[in-house]
Amino acid sequence: MAKHTTYIMSEDARTQAEFYIHAFGGELQSVMTHGEQMPDAKEELKDKVLNLSFVAAGVNFLMCDNFFGPVSYGNSLHLVMEFDTEAEAHEAFTKLSEGGQVNHPLERAFWGPLFGQIQDKFGVLWMITTATETN
């Protein structure tokens, strides 16, 4: 058995994590910088995030500042957030789309639940959905 954790490379992990906490609700768990963890860190890296942990909508996420070069996102990976209620899905979709691009509006899908796609202002692709109703 495995445990999946999303790890996001970021240009600014603190700001991006705050945005997701705002969109989904949650809290910052911990932040470690290069300067705190690596005594011989280069001056320009001392304040960069080495590891950041947060919980949003009950899901654990990890992040760090990518210091090897610019972050680039492709279209082959989407983060999916499934909500129990339509109200939760609409609220998260609205907040997550702030400054981003709605690729597919949040609406009832032919298979039943709400479904929508967003590329957020950081370039991350998301699918927002609601739980499938069972009869």
From TrEMBL:
Gene3D superfamilies: 2,3-Dihydroxybiphenyl 1,2-Dioxygenase, domain 1. Residues 9-129 form the PhnB-like domain. It holds the Pfam family 3-dmu-9_3-mt. InterPro entries: Glyas_Bleomycin-R_OHBP_Dase, PhnB-like. CDD domains: PhnB_like. Transmembrane segments: none annotated. This is VOC family protein.
